[in-house]
Amino acid sequence: MSPLAALASSPALRDDIRRLGDLLGEALIRQEGPATYETVERIRALSRDDPDGAARLIDELPLAEATTLARAFSLYFHLANIAEQVHRSRSQTAARARTGGPLAEAGVAIREALEAGEVTADEVATGFARINARPVFTAHPTEASRRSVLVKLRRIAELLDEPRTDRSDLAIAEAIDLLWQTDELRLGKPEVTDEARNALFYLDDLAAGAAGDVVGEFAAAARACGLEVQAGRPVLTFGSWIGGDRDGNPFVTPAVTARVLAIQHDHAVRDLLPHIEDLSARLSVSERIAPVSPAFATSLADDLAALPDLDPRFAASEARISSRSASSSAVVR
């Protein structure tokens, strides 16, 4: 059975979809009343047993009720898709635990080709040196979801991936209520900056972990082939057409491009901050035990001079490092 077929027949997936459907039904009762919930359930049953009857019932509904009905089914399918994505992720994680993932498998295949003499070490090194994956974000206004909706769906996915408790059910119910109260459609056409922020929603997610994992797996695959990826080597970079499209989009002006670049720079800094904070917490190396090089001390001094508003604690640390570095240099001379 293929992974997709196994996923479709998974009792756990069906249970999670049923769980989300039940929570949505409770939300409909809270938000719209029992009558709306009963109409949704009636049409759902008719759609399975009597499609023509369901169509006639929908035709008879007032526009406002039909709109509410459409929103209810739309949200249900959003939730079902989220459940499928969570289970697909679990399945892929289990497969990666067994095989190491596609990059690891590629590394094994290349090493076997090397051992069999099918390729030379120079050819492999040249190939690795040329590799740079560059996903490019673009925008399509008819497909773009509102960021406020994406954030809530991601929250539900995170909760669904945790062990089920009364507390997690309550948190999912709250998110569904908020989704119901959120207009999934924009009142006006999205601006270029809106499209840029939507794309950055996915980039923020990648920067939180997946991008670093890919780079690490690439380095491991290279080591399996007897190669070492140089520090700072660009293996994975990202691009975007949004805000820079000059093929006739009248809304992309120099001012808009500058604004989109400012938004991207802001996200890049904010995406790096958690990693820097984590690094500062883990790197507890004492300069007295493992002195830094004079080049590092000079670089640090230059950085701090360019950032005069930095916390005074860092300036004090830099002064101690510079002093020790100068002393070490004098001893060496």
Describe the secondary-structure layout.
Blueprint: H1 3-8, H2 11-32, H3 34-49, H4 51-60, H5 63-99, H6 102-115, H7 121-130, E1 136-137, H8 147-160, H9 166-181, H10 192-224, E2 239-240, H11 254-282, H12 294-306, H13 312-332
Parallel strand pairs: 1-2
Helix pairs in contact: 2-3, 2-5, 2-9, 3-4, 5-8, 6-10, 8-9, 10-11, 12-13
Task: Write out key terms for the chains shown.
single chain; extended; mainly alpha; 72% helix; two-stranded parallel sheet
Q: Order of strands across the biggest sheet?
A: 1-2
Count all strands and give the number: 2
Radius of gyration: 27 Å
Please write the string of helix (H) and strand (E) elements: HHHHHHHEHHHEHHH
Amount of helix? over 70%
Tell the overall outline.
extended
Q: End-to-end distance, in Å?
A: 71 Å
Number of continuous helical runs:
13
Structural class: mainly alpha
Biggest sheet layout: 2 strands, parallel
- Average predicted confidence as pLDDT: 86
Q: pLDDT below 50 for ≥5 consecutive residues: which ranges?
A: 329-333
Task: State which percent range the strand residues make up.
Answer: under 5%
Task: Give structural notes.
The protein is extended, with a radius of gyration of 27 Å. It contains 13 helices and two strands; from the N terminus they run αααααααβαααβααα. Among the domains are: 100-144 and 190-284, no CATH class; 294-332. Strands 1-2 form a two-stranded parallel ribbon. It is 72% helix and 1% strand.
